[in-house]
Give the backbone structure.
Amino acid sequence: MGHAELTAHIENMQELSPDFARMWAEHPVAQVRNRTYALHHPLVGELTLHGELVALPDAPSCCGLDLFAAEPGSASEQALRELGNQ
C-alpha cells in the first residue's frame, strides 16, 4: 500500500469510526527504533531476532535501514548460521 493509499484508508477509517478517529488523534504514530521479532522460517524453524532501525543521514526521505541480530550463543544464532551455509 503506497502513502496515498494508506492516507486514504486512514481517512476512510476516521469517517467510518468515531472511536478510530479519536484514538488516531490521541495517539500519534511513533517510529519504533528497536524491538524483538519472533519468526518462523520454513527451513530452520523458530527464530528470535533483535531488530534495530538505523537512520541514514544521507537519505532523509528514507525511513532507515533495519538491522537484525540473534542473541550470541542462542538457538536462533545457530539457525542463522545454518541458513548462511546453505
About this structure: The beta strands are 34-41, 45-54, 65-69. The first strand starts at residue 34 and ends at 41. Residues 48 and 74 are 9 Å apart (CA to CA).
